TrEMBL record:
This is HTH-type transcriptional regulator ArgP. Keywords: DNA-binding, Transcription, Transcription regulation. HAMAP family: HTH_type_ArgP. Belongs to the LysR transcriptional regulatory family. Controls the transcription of genes involved in arginine and lysine metabolism. Residues 2-58 form the HTH lysR-type domain. Homodimer. Signal peptide: none annotated. The keyword Transcription applies. It comes from Pseudomonas laurentiana. GO terms for molecular function: DNA binding; DNA-binding transcription factor activity. It comes from the Bacteria.
Length: 296
């Protein structure tokens, strides 16, 4: 039989990125958390954590985390069916990984009413759409939004649509770097904006224009900051169309190459045995996301 106190300690250490915060969340001492992890490792006969900063799960640790995540969701269903088991009457809670651009644009509008009706609290982990699935593979989240279609074992994926990005810059930036007119060959030698080391959207866009070499760029791991830096003329960048309609209409931003957007598909990944709540959220997103995303 599983000792869920031990599994909860493992989940807390991974989700809270450390022993100290895990202890605070569970109301235990840090040494008690360490003892529970050691006991769990003794029972499974191998390490469940990689002792790094932050700690990460081993392969067996990921399997245990996936199990814990699904058990939590199924327990919520049981509490709804047998209200006496839910002694504190606490709201439901889901941990979800999603990309910063979705969080800054359409996500709140898509889930706001659902969360209010279902008394749902969200723990949102921000990851680039190209790598968000790693959080689910590690057992840290119950669902994720990402650009990959292929689900991890035990999960399903659903195409919600695509976010349309446009390559934009300020008029001042264009005047400074393309005073004699836009030239694609010069684009790699003008500063770009990249969200982070896992963001390869600009790379793909340049490749579509026939530019394969490296390019100058700032790193800006903030969706709002990315837009502000583009408006300030620090570089050109691929920005969600949903985020810049006002700027395009007013002329504060212009497309560096008109009518050349790039569409990024977004897949919703969720556990097959994720319980009723996760299934309802999936159905809700399948219906509402189309208001903001481009169909593929």
């Amino acid at each position: 039989m599983f000792d869920y106190k031990l599994l909860s300690a493992l989940a807390a250490v991974v989700e809270q990125a450390g022993f100290e915060r895990a202890a605070q969340v569970l109301g235990l001492s840090q040494s008690a958390i360490s003892q529970r992890i050691k006991l769990l490792e003794a029972r499974v006969g191998q390490p469940v954590l990689i002792r790094a900063t932050p700690p990460g799960p081993t392969e067996i640790g990921r399997r245990l985390l996936n199990h814990v995540q699904q058990v939590r969701l199924l327990e919520r269903d049981l509490q709804r069916q047998v209200p006496a088991l839910d002694e504190e009457g606490m709201p439901e809670r889901l941990r979800i990984a999603l990309n910063a651009d979705s969080l800054a644009t359409w996500w709140a509008g898509a889930v706001g009413e659902f969360c209010a009706e279902q008394r749902l609290l969200l723990d949102m982990v921000v990851e680039d759409q190209d790598v968000g699935l790693k959080r689910m593979r590690a057992g840290e989240v119950a669902a994720c939004l990402c650009g990959s279609e292929r689900p991890v074992a035990g999960a399903r994926s659903l195409l919600l649509g695509a976010m349309r990005y446009r390559a934009l810059a300020s008029p001042a930036f264009m005047a400074r770097h393309f005073a004699n007119g836009f030239e694609v060959t010069r684009l790699s030698r003008t500063p770009a904006l990249v969200f982070g080391p896992d963001d390869f959207l600009q790379h793909r866009y340049l490749a579509s224009l026939g530019i394969q070499e490296g390019f100058l760029h700032h790193l800006c791991p903030s969706s709002e900051g990315f837009l502000r830096m583009t408006e300030a003329g620090l570089g050109w960048g691929l920005v969600p169309e949903l985020q810049v309609r006002e700027q395009l209409e007013s002329g504060r931003l212009v497309e560096i190459l008109p009518d050349t957007p790039i569409d990024v598909p977004l897949y919703w990944h969720h556990w097959r045995n994720g319980g009723q709540l996760l299934g309802q959220l999936t159905e809700h997103l399948a219906t509402t996301a189309r208001q903001w995303l481009v169909p593929l």
